Structures are given as C-alpha cells and as structure tokens.
C-alpha cells in the first residue's frame, strides 16, 4: 500500500457500522453480545464466530454486516477516546426493563454524547415479570434521550438477551442508523485503523487486535501502531482463521509487531521499514519526553463528592490510594479508614504501589473517587485521561496532610491550609561532580520555569525519591533568578547528592490559602 491516496467521493464505498454496547452493570451487555454473536448467518460449514479478538462481525440473512466491539463497559471506550481513537459509529445502550436507568446508564449516555455517537436503546430483560419498558422510556427523558414513541428521534428496541428475542429488530435499527450516518470508506488505499486490544502471547509474540477503518490491510504490509511497528506476518479473523486481507470495519488480529501497542492507538500502513522505524523512534522519544509526572489536578470528582456529601446524598468518601512503597499505602489506608464517623464513612477503593496509570484513573472515575497520590506521580497518559474525565488527583508527601484533607471531606468541608503552586519540570541531562560544591545537575527545562529558592522534588520513574530545596540555580557561570522552558541550567540541591541522568526535577512554591 501507498500513503496519501485521496478519499474522493467516487472511491468511497459503504462499510458496515461499528457498534459499542454500553450500560449499567448486570443489565445484560455481555449476554446481549453473546446473543448477537449467534445471529451470524455466514458461519455455515466454515463455523461461526468463535474467537474473542475484541470485536466480531455478524453477517445477517440480508447480507448486511455489523461489527460489534465485544469489550463491553466504559473503560475500553474511554481508554480509546483518551487516545483520540474514534471507532464507534453507534452506541447500543442496554437498560434492564426491570431495573431502569441507573448511574452507569447515565455515565454511558455521557460517554456516547461526548463521542458524538448516536444511541440506540435496547430495553433488555423484557421476559422478566417485573419488566416495565414504558418506565425506562420515561426515565430516559430526564437525560435528554427522547425515544421515537415519545416524539424524539432515538430508536428503542425491546429485547431479551436470554430468550433471544428482538435481536433482529435491534440489528435492523442499527442498520437504519448506519444508513442515516451514510458510513463509507475507501477500500483502494493502504489501511488505517485503531488497536482494540493487544497482548504478548507466549507462542505467537505480540498479538494486536485491530479494527481496519480505511483501506485494506494485507499480509506482508508494514504497519506502525502507536510507537510499535512490524511486518504483518499473519492476519487472523474472528473465526480463528488466517486471512490474507481485511477491509473497512473488519476486526482482525495482527501478528508480527515488534512490541505491544496500547489499546486505542492508531495504526497505519507505511511504505517501507525505514519509514516505520523513523516514526517509531520519534514516537518513543516523545513518549519519554512526556513521561514526566503529572501535576495538573482537575476539579471534578472531589467537588462532586463534596457537593453530594453536603447535600446529604452521599454517605461516604471514596479514595483510591497510590503510594511509593507498600508501607505508606498500608499506613494511609489505616489512617483514612479511621476518619470515618457515624454520618459519613470512608471507602478505600484500592491501595497500591507505583505510578498512577490510566487504569487507576478509570477505576477512580467508575467509583467516583479521588486519587490520593503519595510520593508518586501520574504517567502522562494518565494525567491526560484524568483531565479529560475530571478525575481529581491530589498529590501529597506527608501523611498527616492526607489525614487533614480526608477529615475535612468527611465533614463536608474542604479547606486545604496550603496549596502548592506548580512551577515547572527540568530534566537532568548530565551530572557534574564539583569540588567543594558537590553534585550539580545540568538540566533542560521541559515545562514551566525553575525559580531560585523554590521547592524541588526529584522524580525517578515517576516516583518521588527526594523532596527539599534548591540551593543553586545557574545559567553558565552566573546565578540567575529563573530559567524558563527551553533553557539549560545548572541545579544543586540542599543536602542532597544522589542525582542521575534522566531524573526529573519538579519545581513548586507553596501558597497559603485561607480556610
Ligand atoms: P452485564 O454486566 O451488563 O454484562 O450483564 P450480564 O450479561 O452479565 O447479565 C447480568 C445478569 O442478567 C445475568 O445473570 C444474565 O443471565 C441476566 N440477563 C441478561 N439478559 C437477560 C434477559 O434478557 N432476561 C433475563 N431474565 N435475564 C437476563
């Protein structure tokens, strides 16, 4: 394949819709996906859809095809969107007819709206005695989902995943929506798409499930996926069969990549190995550069929790703890649990060790909790996701400050006594040992500014290994007041000498905030 072929209207052809199923836990997402899987008519002697490769494609009796992403839940969807992958054309919102609209139903609606994906409501469990589909339609009204029977334009279908009823109607609704969306792709060009999931397989090496969005992916193509590349050694479809090509809206497993790309990473076919290497080297360098810790705290989960506690709607403070070492994680957990009182409890969703990753942020989002980061920082991807999802990350290095803040929350107040102002990041490029001065770090300021006399934290692989004061800030031979992004500078730390190339210096100032 060759890059850069224009997608003009005349070389576009219709492609199958790609569908994500979302909804509240236990409302039947998995059951519905399993039921829809069996509606495939193309199976015949070749055997039906047997493999879980992250997505599958059904062929209906009419010959029309629909692709379903079979990793239900919001996490996968959110993770993909966080990386900019927009792969869902239609969201099927599953609502159990006996249970109605629940918190994750509302969350799913928000996700779908944020992604600009039209929703089709599948009112499930219609076989149950307590089923009340009319109530579901009414409840959806207050979340701006107006179904057709109530004068809106959202299609709704009553189904029973268990009894396999209404599945054909649901598929018809999806196809109708696809027609309205006028989904098209150019099959006569090199392939582009997104990684749905990936893993390292003992026997087969890197296995990446991808969804082809444009063009046709061929065996032998050279592919770049995220910061990984490789020549496609084999393509395996959702029936576990090797195929030589995969066209638009087709999910397929790709073997032959040199590494494991992240879910949601875009993939593209390039003209040769050299180009692939170039792109990947650049991307890996970028990843490293951005691998500095996160400081920006969004105002989301914390404010929301506080508002609910103040309104008496919430009876517990939920926190997710990430710490530098096991001892701190355990101590923090014990400390915050003790702060519960009669009216408001404390729930520790998770208490683990290490950098804050995207899955921590997703868990915090799903559980409406605040992340307490103790001497650790977030990966740049996690930081971006937290910003996008308004998940609060609070950074601490002193246990009693955590205790103070959680106690305030439990009391329905939030009054941090001091607020830290983030100044900037500098990366240590070289360490000099100077007589009578000690170690001096030759740094490059990658973000913000470094100021004379500011507080500093030394981060090694996202974990804080030292916190203290800056004793010297120099540009060449001169003492200076500050050094801004893009400049080099020499730093030394008061009473601290264990500096290494690649360490990141986080600079901050403290500011008093009235209670
Ligand atoms: P998920 O958490 O949304 O993936 O929900 P599951 O698919 O795991 O279903 C949760 C429970 O509901 C399981 O016990 C299913 O057997 C049951 N269930 C799912 N669909 C139906 C249905 O249409 N009718 C009835 N009666 N039960 C269903």
From TrEMBL:
Ranges of residues in domain Tr-type G: 14-182
The residues that hold GTP are: 23-30, 70-74, 124-127
Any idea which UniProt keywords this protein has?
Answer: Cytoplasm, GTP-binding, Initiation factor, Nucleotide-binding, Protein biosynthesis
Q: Which GO terms describe its molecular function?
A: translation initiation factor activity
Q: Where in the cell is it found?
A: Cytoplasm
What the protein does comes down to: One of the essential components for the initiation of protein synthesis. Protects formylmethionyl-tRNA from spontaneous hydrolysis and promotes its binding to the 30S ribosomal subunits. Also involved in the hydrolysis of GTP during the formation of the 70S ribosomal complex.
Q: Give the family this protein belongs to, as stated in its UniProt record.
A: Belongs to the TRAFAC class translation factor GTPase superfamily. Classic translation factor GTPase family. IF-2 subfamily.
The name this protein goes by in its record: Translation initiation factor IF-2
Organism, per UniProt?
Acetobacter thailandicus
Lineage of origin: Bacteria, Pseudomonadati, Pseudomonadota, Alphaproteobacteria, Acetobacterales
């Amino acid at each position: 394949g060759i890059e850069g072929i224009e997608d003009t209207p005349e070389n576009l052809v219709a492609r199958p819709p790609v569908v994500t199923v979302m909804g509240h836990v236990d409302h039947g997402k998995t059951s519905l996906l399993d039921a829809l899987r069996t509606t495939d008519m193309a199976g015949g002697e070749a055997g039906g859809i047997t493999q879980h490769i992250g997505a599958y494609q059904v062929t209906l009796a009419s010959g029309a095809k629909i692709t379903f992403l079979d990793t239900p839940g919001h996490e996968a969807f959110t993770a993909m969107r966080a990386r900019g992958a927009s792969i869902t054309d239609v969201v099927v919102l599953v609502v159990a007819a006996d249970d109605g609209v629940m918190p994750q139903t509302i969350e799913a609606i928000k996700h779908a709206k944020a992604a600009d994906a039209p929703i089709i409501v599948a009112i499930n469990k219609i076989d149950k005695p307590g089923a009340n589909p009319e109530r579901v339609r009414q409840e959806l009204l207050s979340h701006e989902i107006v179904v057709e029977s109530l004068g809106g334009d959202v299609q709704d279908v009553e189904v029973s995943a268990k009894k396999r009823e209404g599945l054909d109607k649901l598929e018809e609704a999806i196809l109708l929506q696809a027609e309205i969306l006028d989904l098209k792709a150019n099959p006569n060009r090199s392939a582009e798409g997104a990684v749905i999931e990936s893993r390292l397989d003992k026997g087969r090496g890197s296995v990446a499930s991808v969804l082809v969005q444009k063009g046709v992916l061929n065996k032998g193509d050279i592919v770049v996926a995220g910061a990984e590349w490789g020549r496609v050694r084999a393509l395996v479809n959702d029936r576990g069969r090797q195929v030589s090509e995969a066209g638009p809206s087709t999910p397929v497993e790709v073997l032959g990549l040199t590494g494991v790309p992240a879910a949601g990473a875009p993939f593209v076919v390039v003209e040769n190995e050299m180009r692939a290497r170039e792109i990947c080297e650049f991307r890996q360098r970028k990843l490293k550069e951005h691998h500095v810790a996160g400081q920006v705290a969004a105002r989301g989960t914390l404010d929301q929790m506080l508002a609910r506690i103040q309104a008496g709607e919430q009876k517990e403070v939920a926190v997710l703890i990430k710490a530098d070492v096991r001892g701190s994680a355990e101590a923090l957990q014990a400390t915050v649990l003790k702060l519960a009182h009669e009216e408001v409890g404390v729930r520790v969703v998770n208490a683990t060790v290490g950098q804050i990753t995207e899955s921590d942020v997703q868990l915090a989002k799903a559980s409406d909790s605040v992340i307490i980061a103790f001497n650790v920082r977030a990966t740049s991807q996690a930081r971006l996701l937290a910003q996008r999802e308004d998940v609060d990350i609070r950074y601490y290095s002193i246990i009693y400050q955590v205790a103070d803040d959680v106690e305030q929350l439990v009391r329905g107040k939030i009054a941090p006594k001091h607020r830290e102002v983030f100044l900037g990041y500098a990366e240590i490029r070289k360490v000099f040992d100077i007589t009578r001065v000690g170690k001096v770090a030759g740094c490059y300021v990658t973000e913000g500014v470094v100021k004379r006399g500011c507080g500093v934290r030394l981060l090694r692989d996202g974990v804080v290994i030292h916190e203290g004061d800056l004793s010297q800030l120099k540009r060449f031979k001169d003492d200076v007041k500050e050094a801004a992004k893009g400049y080099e500078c020499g730093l030394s730390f008061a009473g601290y000498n264990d500096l290494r190339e690649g360490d990141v210096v986080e600079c901050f100032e403290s500011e008093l905030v009235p209670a």
